[in-house]
Amino acid sequence: MTPAATPILAVEALEVRFGTRNVLRGLNLAIASGEIFGLLGPNGAGKTTLIRTICGRVTPTAGDVTIAGHKRGKRAALNHIGLVPQELALYMHLSVRENLVAFGRLSGLRRKDTHRAVDWALEAARLRERADDPVDILSGGWKRRVNIAAAILHNPSLLILDEPTVGVDVDARNELQDVIRDLSLSGMAVLLATHDLDQAETLCATVGFLRDGVIAPKGTPRGLIAETFEGQKEIILELRRKLTKKQRDALVRSSFIAGTSEMSWSVMGAADGSTSVGLAERLERVGILVREIRLREPGLDSLFLHLSRKKTDRAPMVIEEAA
Ligand SMILES: Nc1ncnc2c1ncn2[C@@H]1O[C@H](COP(=O)(O)OP(=O)(O)OP(=O)(O)O)[C@@H](O)[C@H]1O
């Protein structure tokens, strides 16, 4: 966002408490017209709570939220928001067009405006060819596009998407991403909550990590990666066999992070690749058998793992001494 741009969404010092639990603790966020902001964060960090607060469904304990200059919760503010929830909220037996007409009427569009809005939304969500199909015969990716079309019928200034591509195949995901990109190019500000870090990296001008009730760090994906890793490379180990507890502890103490299967581990190493030289032999000496060692440029996924670790977990890579 350029410093001069007036944000479509402005969140200032937002606090939300549930009972004794402070979920949001002085959160700030600004999204400009045409900007796609990726909201990242571990499960339970408060992403949905932030979205619900922006939409006026949760009352904050402190702070301000304005949408296109209107205070959150007011009718004028709601008129500027298009919300695409994670769950599909569609009439399955009606056609795509009938669904959109129904949503248009429900959202208060006049009859004569509804058909124009539906035609525009069908085009924008690339749904024209399926307009007359009943929703229940569509695949997951198409249904999600109908969900988006329903949210943009009133041409909102701010489009909020909560995990828009969960459970869809790669082609459908790419199509959805193109739809979101086109909407941002038409001037919509987009808040995209996602666990899909690859998607955030390709789609979002800026991303932020919601942790401990605030969004930090925040910046361009490339900028954040460069700042955090300072040119280091990510070393990925694929193991031949399962680790003993002792071997596992040794890797963890040496700053390795386990992938989802625990047969894959990663660690940051020197930019010139020297860290990986002789690594397989060193690991073998402590009984850790490696199938493959790869080097790659770190991505947002590496940053996410890095930020998710406790500071005390981080140590230099000293596998020999540690094991
Ligand atoms: N209405 C509520 N009353 C009490 N606690 C709540 C309420 N809504 C959310 N929470 C709590 O607030 C925390 C944040 O939840 P939230 O759903 O916003 O997280 P999230 O980042 O969206 O998670 P996920 O990625 O899993 O959807 C959680 O601990 C949740 O249990």
Automatic annotation (TrEMBL):
Entry-linked SUPFAM superfamilies: P-loop containing nucleoside triphosphate hydrolases
Keyword Lyase: no
Keyword Transport recorded: yes
InterPro entries reported in the protein's UniProt record: AAA+_ATPase, ABC_transporter-like_ATP-bd, ABC_transporter-like_CS, ABC_transporter_ATP-binding, P-loop_NTPase
Domain spans labelled ABC transporter: 9-237
Keywords on record: ATP-binding, Nodulation, Nucleotide-binding, Transport
Pfam family, one: ABC_tran
Family as reported in the entry's similarity comment: Belongs to the ABC transporter superfamily.
Protein's name in the database: ABC-2 type transport system ATP-binding protein
